[in-house]
Input
Amino acid sequence: MLGRLTSSHFVGRVGELAELELASREAGSGRPVLVLLGGDSGVGKTRLVAEFEDRLQDATVLRGEGVEQGGADLPYAPLLGALRPLVREHHPALDGLSAGGRAQLATLLPGLGTEGAGSDEPAVGDSGQVRLFEALLELLDALSSEQPLVLILEDMHWADRSTRTFAAFLARTLRSERVMLLLTYRTDELHRRHALRPLLAELERLGRARRIELAPFDRPELTEALSDILGERPTNQLVMRLYTRAEGNPLYTEELLAAGLDGRGAAPQSLRDAFLLRIERLSSDAQRAARIVAVGRRLDYDCIAKLTGFEPERLNDSLREALAEQVLVTGDDDRFGFRHALLREALYDDLLPGERSELHHALALALERTTAPDDETEVALATSIATNFAAAGDQPAALRATVRAARAARCVHAYGEAADLAERALELWPRVPDAAELTGLDEVGLLAQAARSHAIGGDRARAEALIGRALGLLDPETDVVRYARLLGRRARLQWHLNRGGEALDLAREALAMLPPGEALRERASLLSWLARTRYLRGHFREAVTEGDEALEAALQAEDPTTEAEALNTLGMARMAGGAVDEGVSCLRRAIELACANEVFDDAAYAYSNLADMLLLSGRTDDALPTLHEGLEVIPTRVRRGRDWLELTLSEIALESGKWEIARAHLGPPPSQQLGVVLIFSQTRRADLALGEGRHEDVAAALEMIEPLVKVSSEPQWHGAYGSILGELLRREGDLDGARLAVANALDELEVCTDDVMRIAKVTAVGMAVEADRALRARDLREEADARQALSRARIHLQRLRAAAEEGGPVERAWLAVGSAELARGRGRNDPKLWGKAACAWDELHRPYQAACARWREAEALIEAGDRVAAAVAAGAALEFTERVGAGWLDGELVALAGRGRLDVPAGEDGAPSPVGAVSEDPFGLTERERQVLALVAEGATNRQIGAALYMAEKTASVHVSRILAKLGVQSRTQAAAVAHRQHLA
Output
């Protein structure tokens, strides 16, 4: 027998090890890194990770492994393995956690000694898992503040759904923490539909991710490893035989040596025979112990003793033998497991069916008599019991244990695993007599539990189908409250599935079933949800009415969560309806309740809603301090809520003229965002890029979110998307596309007739589009098109007047812009109207909109011949655009000043803006060039111009080129339009 099977020194892998060390140094400098380490079974991933860990200095290492459970996944198995040592060692970082964070972690780690925040009855849409993840993030942040942290999760091909979800959350959420996340997995296990494949694809798109594929040994590396194992240099023939048989795989090579196969004879089938030869060399007692561990995967001494029935001395001898032969190994938790998973798999597959079932049943019974120690969680034990009873074929026991495991999984917010377990229980239900008595719940209750877990886990379609099955088993006449509760849940699911009409009808049906006088949480929750949907659809008056009713019901039912939700909705709806101070009070109370109950996500959204409504109500100066207050109150671990606050801050800073602040708070890159957060983030990026003149970036951002906006039922996204797209296309000269973008947005918004704030902004863009269309049509003498554009503009103006009557100062400012645009479209550009619009925006402290109005004011003043006043207006706008970097508007102003020969103040860099003497011709055209321009305006070709003015065709071409340059236009059509507007032709 060989003294050892593994090389005592590290062989090869120089490049891979260097890349891991580089990643750890980057993480240590405050740039979080994600490493995906893949390779075939036995290729040496674990050895590489161990060598990397040994070389780490001044770093904290947490390491856990996925567990192949053979059925239901073990929730958070790799994370539990990584975190248990912290609890056993009473790490100081645990003491520094917030009360809420510690309580959340206690759901996973009862050894913390704090009651968990998990609920046995989580509501649909509950953010329990997010809160748990935020608590884990808080812990990792605390650990990495002391020294760099390396979190290693091995065997991710066996990882449960919740661990995969956490890995995605962590990878998207890390900002500047000194954290390196290292995930390992078997590439040969990843079949086409393997659950890990989508996660790897998602993670690889992140800028901080790097992927390492570990290759087998080449011949020199294999020779070096064999020399160390054998104690002498192997012969070339031995190296060749082993390299041919094992193909450079280190584990396979070691197993061939251990089994006495040095490459001679028939090759073992997939090396399974080589693994089994190792087992067959053991005594019968050692083989018995190994088979039990093969079934249990990792077992402690007492459990092995119970299952073998051996006396202590006999058991000790058998375990020592298995350890000496390097079949079994012991871990840090003193449990016995196999040296390599492939060895366990080979032995398990070799068990006879009856033998396997007997061992699974015995193990399940033994585990049922076990109490989980402090550093274990009940979910791990419950899941193992359920899996072993199922493998043994004991269906009644499997049903009972599976229902218990599903409940335990929900308590630790492992909703994906809870859903899978509940589905297994539903399959067993019809096969087990007296299933309700055995499990303590009826089939409706089990269906409802499965639906809740699916909904929170993200599969709302499956959840809605299960609720439908549950409703079919109930009698609405005899079980009114329960039936109504399930109807309400189904309505919420349908809303998220973009079936808004069905959802609202179903919710009203559920509400009508409930007795109106009773203090029921179901009634309060339904009313609150209906009020929120009213608001989201822009029906603000109904939202106030139903919100008041929901608030009263929540107070009667003593339900603070629903009370805060109703207050949040009421606050926004009242502010939208003009009762600003009342709305502020409601939102402030919602924030107070959410913070008191440590529901910081809800508090963050309430802060954002308050700031957003203050902006829309014209109280711009109050909005920014509100957001700064929110960022001080909301803990840093609440990343989702803080991201929303940051994006809202960026929006309001842009409107307030503080563009540097807007740029600084745009948040993480799009690859780390999903859903409405992605929509919000990209509209913010597009809005800023639009102001800066980066039109390609605007188009890219809008393209990214277009599918999400299209299926959204919330007017705010249609309004933002439509106004940005319409303005972008207008600037690029695609007036047909701009008109369509505005029309599509208004089609969505007109359903929500109360949402005058967003209607006004989109309509103002539409006014600019129609003014441009009317001017162009008139320049091209297309009178029918000009009349149509003006007709559309008048309709837009009526819409703006209605919005101003319903709204506040912001809507009145947009009305002022619309009135000026209509005059521009009629060919009677009025500087007084534009000046009035600029003053309206000044009063609201919206300098960008004021600068846009002053640009148009300067243009109108040039047309009126007052270039001195035009220079004042243009100079005021230029001062703002140069200060904040509003590139597009700055370019328009500079071009206007150049064409108009305006005397404007010097820019910030000291260089004078375009200046020149005031003259009757703002473009400096010669008399001959004015004659050429007159013919261009009539559509004459260069040959026709030459014939009319007695010059060569080439000379006419030169004149046209000079005219285009002086006018600052790109085409003859644009030159003709300018000539008509400036009365040059």
User: Anything to note?
Assistant: Confidence is low (pLDDT under 50) at residues 115-126, 907-919. DSSP finds 48 helices and seven strands in the chain. The CA atoms of residues 84 and 346 lie 30 Å apart. The beta strands are 33-39, 60-65, 149-154, 179-186, 209-214, 328-330, 336-338.
